[in-house]
Design a protein that fits this description.
alpha+beta, Rossmann fold, 503 residues, 4-stranded antiparallel β-sheet, 7 helices, 8-stranded mixed β-sheet, 27 strands
């Protein structure tokens, strides 16, 4: 309804909109007024949903725990007279089954290291079988973080590693690397990458980290003395304006962000030096200093990237700040590591029609196979293989860098809710726009007084005036060959000798 004005007749003529719909309540807008048709249109509704039927489906599947996984199945809809069960299959093999309930829990899943395909089914199926299956992917690996510093034995590396490993929600293992060794390290094997002073990286290494984030990875980056020598930050491309030596305190903290929910203590930190950067279109300042320059920046996901990136515009260095000696440092780094490595359990699957990140890094090449075994990408599409839009439910196979990954795709869970708009709501919908016939009757001209054009009479009158002017001119004026003019007098038109020479 909100877009109908764009494709209706542009000249404002009366129009009729015939809408064939199932009047599904879950598809309605938040504001009822958004259903109103344009002023020049009359709406005609055709409800084809038929009789209301009972339906039960799998609303969602949640996974909890890092080592000992617990899977919870949330079943929606009315109870059925059928004796139904919830069947859990892992990697095409039945793992367990339980009687249907609002919430069915499968505790302590025995999983080997690697990626596993999970399928949860309701059996026997009901009249709407499309929501009786749920496809998901569980990546059961030991979470690890790649820590890149100039020296793996430095105090900075020790501080970062201790803070990352201190968080207990998801135990993380820290793997040390240097700017020289990161070039041969497969970044896809790590839950996150932490770079202390991104100016240490080569251009090629910085590009690999940026591609890793674009493909869905996570990174925590700090700026330091080496970054201050650059015109742009190497990973994000943010413009580096200057390095200020004026002592600053924290002016504003966005405590709504998961990393900063416990923001007490930040205003006690002194920043003797920091690097001033210019925010980009997809950047958000989480911590702001007194001079209004951003200290902690988050690169927001966009159409080109689904990863997460946090950037701290100062290093962990005593000459620059005293952040490392405050108790909040350990909590901050631990929360940042959990935020970067953690993912919503519902993100183990995607919906049909939604844009999906494939994990294929640009230029590396790869291929995607649909659940029916057909190729998704043509040779001309390989350049944009980092994203695609699935149109089938099931498991998509992604092959790149000699690795194989799985993407699970399901129907939109809202489609399983068959509740319809009430008859009163349908009546009010049609009453939002006055009747088109009444408006047309007022606007239309009377049938017994059709409009007449006055163009032809005006044209004939102009022709008559032109003809009379020509006749009069020929009668009143005669031009001699010698350039003189004689005025006609009397009936025969001329008298000799009575002439006037024209100058």
């Amino acid at each position: 309804m909100t877009s109908s004005q764009a494709w209706l007749s542009a000249n404002g003529l009366p129009a009729h909109i015939h809408l064939i719909t199932d009047a599904q309540q879950s598809a309605g807008p938040l504001r009822f007024a958004d259903l109103q048709a344009p002023p020049n249109a009359q709406l005609h509704l055709y409800d084809v949903a038929g009789a209301q039927t009972e339906n039960a489906g799998i609303a969602s599947v949640d996974v909890r725990g890092a080592r000992e996984r617990t899977l919870s199945v949330n079943v929606s809809g009315a109870a059925s007279a059928l004796k139904r069960e919830v069947v859990l299959s892992i990697d095409d093999r039945e793992y367990a089954r339980k009687p249907v309930a609002a919430v069915v829990i499968f505790p302590q899943l025995q999983l080997k290291s690697g990626m596993h395909r999970v399928r949860v089914s309701l059996v026997p199926r009901d009249a709407l079988p499309q929501d009786d299956d749920f496809f998901g992917v569980i990546e059961h690996t030991e979470p690890s973080v790649l820590l890149v510093t100039h020296d793996a034995q430095s105090d900075e590396a020790a501080y970062f590693a201790a803070a990352i490993e201190s968080q207990t929600l998801v135990p993380l293992k820290v793997v040390h690397a240097t700017a020289q060794s990161i070039g041969n390290t497969p970044l896809q094997e790590f839950s996150a990458v932490v770079v202390a002073d991104s100016g240490l990286l080569t251009a090629a290494a910085a590009k690999r980290v940026a591609q890793y984030v674009e493909a869905g990875g996570a990174a925590f980056v700090t700026l330091g003395p080496q970054s201050a020598r650059q015109q742009n930050e190497l990973i994000t491309g943010l413009a580096i304006r200057k390095t200020t030596n004026e002592e600053q305190r924290i002016a504003q903290v966005d405590d709504s962000h998961p990393v900063l929910r416990d923001a007490a203590g930040w205003r006690a930190v002194r920043f003797m030096r920091h690097i001033v950067v210019t925010l980009g279109e997809h950047d958000r300042s989480l911590i702001t200093l007194q001079d209004q320059s951003p200290l902690l920046i988050e690169r927001l996901a966009d159409a080109q990237s689904s990863g997460r990136l946090l950037l701290l515009a100062a290093p962990l260095n005593r000459d620059w700040n005293d952040l490392g000696i405050h108790p909040l440092f350990v909590r901050f780094i631990a929360d940042a590591a959990h935020y970067l490595t953690g993912r919503d359990a519902n993100a183990m699957s995607y919906s049909v029609g939604a844009q999906v990140t494939t994990g294929i890094i640009g230029g590396a090449g790869g291929q995607i196979f649909a659940p029916n075994g057909e190729r998704v990408l043509q040779l001309s599409d390989l350049a944009g293989a980092s994203h695609f839009v699935p149109d089938q439910t099931g498991f998509y196979e992604v092959r790149s860098d000699n690795r194989k990954r799985w993407l699970a795709v399901n129907v939109d869970a809202r489609e399983a809710d068959l509740s319809k708009l009430s008859e009163d709501a349908l009546t009010r919908w049609q009453a939002l726009t006055p009747a088109l016939a009444a408006r047309a009757k007022v606007a239309a001209p009377a049938a017994d007084n059709p409009p007449r054009s006055i163009g032809w009479p005006l044209l004939l009158l102009a022709a008559a005036f032109l003809l009379s002017e020509l006749l009069l001119a020929n009668y009143r004026l005669t031009i001699r060959r010698d350039g003189s003019q004689m005025l006609a007098k009397g009936r025969d038109g001329m008298r000799t000798g009575e002439s006037e020479v024209l100058q």
